């Protein structure tokens, strides 16, 4: 689910980027925030960090003694993406193995759907492999799947979320 | 795997801060991210360098999974769904998945039928009909 959330953040602006005009400061802050999002990618409690939509407030800058940079406490509104247990979502198959498939959904690259959670589908070996059921519905690379999220995990080292999903439920499975 | 506070979106148990947060449908995010991308194109020669992987993958995803492309249609979807006393989260799941029948809608968002909420099948059917009219005129 994409969320629009208001968040506090401490933005550090290098001394040489500071300008007397207020407008340049806002731009510098937004650019710093986007750079930090690009580095951090995601946060455990917020999800994936995507974009800044508005700067709500900029607090008084505090000069950092050793570096001469200025720290501004800001409040901004941004867009994040998070998957919730019990949520129904749509993703695309990018890898098929005989015990399950891997899906992608939005910025989440590592979603696993085990064969155990694909009721009535069985593995069909072949050049790329796929899962099929009695009605010839196929789960193979690039197919769109509607699934339910059964668990999510924050991987601190990789700074990413992984998810476990299932097709157990009505109206779940490949979407044409 | 996380199971803190027994999170379960099917029952709308997603943590208070998320219940209060505004959720966005894929089609709304597509309009926002496309606009951001255009802004970046104006600011630099190579916008793709400026955007993160997260931004790029998300933009690709929402463009592909937006049921409505026209900004007026997107506004109408939000407006119509807002008339039905849904939580933000529920509204966006419905706007994203566009269920065609009442049974499908309840399967996608089980919480609309729980807790003695006033969502009878007729109301859900009316809502789905209103949504399908927008698709026709997009």
Automatic annotation (TrEMBL), chain B:
Main location per the UniProt record: nucleus
Residues in RNA polymerase Rpb4/RPC9 core domain copies: 16-138
Keyword Aminoacyl-tRNA synthetase among record annotations: no
Source organism superkingdom: Eukaryota
Keyword Nucleus appears in the UniProt entry: yes
Keywords carried by this UniProt record: Nucleus
Pfam families (alphabetical): RNA_pol_Rpb4 (PF03874)
Localisation: Nucleus
InterPro entries, per the entry: HRDC-like_sf, RNA_pol_Rpb4/RPC9_core, Rpb4-like, Rpb4/RPC9, Rpb4/RPC9_sf
Gene3D superfamilies xrefs: 1.20.1250.40
Family designation: Belongs to the eukaryotic RPB4 RNA polymerase subunit family.
Name of the protein in question: RNA polymerase Rpb4/RPC9 core domain-containing protein
Organism: Hibiscus sabdariffa (roselle)
